[in-house]
Write a structure and sequence with these properties.
6 helices, 100 residues, single chain, mainly alpha
Length: 100
């Protein structure tokens, strides 16, 4: 795995979430991804920002005009940390398939 590639890191976490996210919950994973992105100098302009925009447009258009993260959207709809993280990975795969 390249130390620079957030996408590869997300794939690693998807395979074994308990190894990286003790609670296996969306909020803890969101913090991990945000920290990783900030450490790499992303400042909100990278793939997670693109994913967040895609999620609002394709899956939850009611949230399109709100400044809210993927994590809060999924927790609003699923109410369970673990289920929200599982749904993130399902949507992540779909997002990756649709990218050019």
């Amino acid at each position: 795995m390249s130390k620079e590639n957030l996408e590869e890191f997300i794939e690693l976490v998807k395979k074994r979430p308990g190894m990286y996210v003790f609670s296996e919950g969306a909020t803890e994973f969101d913090g991990l991804v945000r920290g990783y992105s900030l450490a790499k100098g992303d400042n909100g302009r990278g793939i997670i920002s693109d994913f967040n925009s895609w999620l609002k447009k394709e899956k939850y258009p009611d949230f399109e005009n709100f400044s809210v993260s993927w994590c809060r959207i999924l927790l609003f709809h699923y109410s369970c940390e673990k289920r929200a993280l599982e749904q993130f990975f399902e949507f992540w795969d779909e997002f990756q398939e649709q990218r050019p």
